[in-house]
Amino acid sequence: LRGRAGFEAGRPGPAQLGSTPPAGSRDAGGSARVTSANSIDGGGGDMASERDVRARLQRAGQEHLLRFYAELAPGPRAALLAELELLDPDALREHCQRAAAACARSPGPLPDLAARLRPLPPERTGSASRSDPETRRLWEEEGFRQIALNKVAVLLLAGGQGTRLGVTYPKGMYQVGLPSQKTLYQLQAERIQRMEQLAGERHGTRSTIPWYIMTSEFTLEPTAQFFKEHDFFHLDPGDVVMFEQRMLPAVAFDGRAILERKDKVAMAPDGNGGLYCALADHQILEDMERRGVEFVHVYCVDNILVRLADPIFIGFCVLRGADCGAKVVEKAYAEEPVGVVCQVDGAPQVVEYSELSPETARLRAPDGGLLYRAGNICNHFFTRGFLQLVTRELEPLLKPHVAVKKVPHVDAEGNPVKPLKPNGIKMEKFVFDVFPFAKNFVAFEVLREEEFSPLKNADSADRDTPTTARRALLAQHYRWALQAGARFLDACGTQLPELPCPPCGVDPPAICEISPLVSCSGEVS
């Protein structure tokens, strides 16, 4: 477990706002290991005085954060001063001003985007389903070779809570109602084990795929405890490295940082693009280098169908000489709310669905499909060298995005308020913001029904729910069983009709769950 205090001030570019809890404060016990680094905050050493902190806040235009200070007991006073001491005044002022200005800009399609937009050229793309079997075999062979050489790691983006699912714990701990009652974390851990086994059997080696897990202040402790309680799902604890991304203050529409309580600033994770600062903060790339890792498969926690260290994807990217790659799925319809992987001014980029005009989104290619159909699914390939370049030189160039949220706060009298409508701004960076910096970017199209079913909403919603995720996995396993020659019988012994593609919104004819330890992509042992 890796925690670190402070905000970045010593790397190229302007001082950057952000904080994580002090190193060593989140030891989960057991096999978890805690490493620390020197504080790089704007204070340092001894606790700052109220006068010092107040002067810094005045410089930032945020003195209101101490308005309840006189009412606090000694403990909460010290906690508030410690939190505020970590915030560089110049960076805090810039952060709050930028958030308010960005929020004030009119949302919607960018007026000049259509003329600058192009689909990715064919030489930058590949497809799991449209390629011939021999090509797929070569990709898979290369991917397994790299895994067997212990050159592949997986990196999980797991900073989000399950708030939209109606739970307070991390999404990875969620069960969607499978017969096995496995959580997302367990499914992913078992897929790693299976991939290590397959690579080892092919090449006669002991293969290890390190699992790096980026958490947030909200998810680190419960995730670490969950892994400990489940014996790390039989993975070597030394190959599971959890680290924490930075937190940024939430900002009101008037540009003032929000107090969550009288003694606490409202903080939020800095988005999955906070990965790059977190890699540097916790020396993750140095850890990868010591292990010999050269290629990193990055993915988001909530996709129940994700294939970890997918050898076909890894092999495709390696043989293409890519430094950065993205898995994509074909958009289901023009208005589907997913980002599109394309080119803007000749550089690879993800354009958010809200940035595309309806006319542009509906454009058709010569084959009759959508012209901009490569839907982003937060499933990426990076070389370690590219990640080193980003963390050392390019991260300060990433521009934050605006997310308008409901932020719990205290009112002018200090009473807690749970807002019914959005009242604050959270500034985030996205993991795909680095795509334009890639020298050789590639996109790899996969079938949605095989590799993408996100879990984002409670079952009261009409999409991306526990029910849709569960049905997607069970339908996949039902197809795999049929392909392997299985036949399903009803209670009377009559063979059930085969239905490889059940209609949307219904369970397959037979409920069949296959453990990832048996098969993680339909392969037959």
From TrEMBL:
Sorted alphabetically, which Pfam families does this protein's record hold?
A: UDPGP
Biological process GO annotation list?
Answer: UDP-N-acetylglucosamine biosynthetic process
Q: Which family does it belong to?
A: Belongs to the UDPGP type 1 family.
| InterPro entries, alphabetized | Nucleotide-diphossugar_trans, UDP-sugar_pyrophosphorylase, UDPGP_fam
The alphabetical list of record keywords is: Nucleotidyltransferase, Transferase
Carries keyword Cell membrane?
no
Q: Where is this region: Disordered?
A: 1-48
In its UniProt record, a GO molecular function of this protein is: UDP-N-acetylglucosamine diphosphorylase activity
Q: What is this protein called?
A: UDP-N-acetylhexosamine pyrophosphorylase-like protein 1
Q: Note the superkingdom of the native organism.
A: Eukaryota
Species for this entry: Galemys pyrenaicus
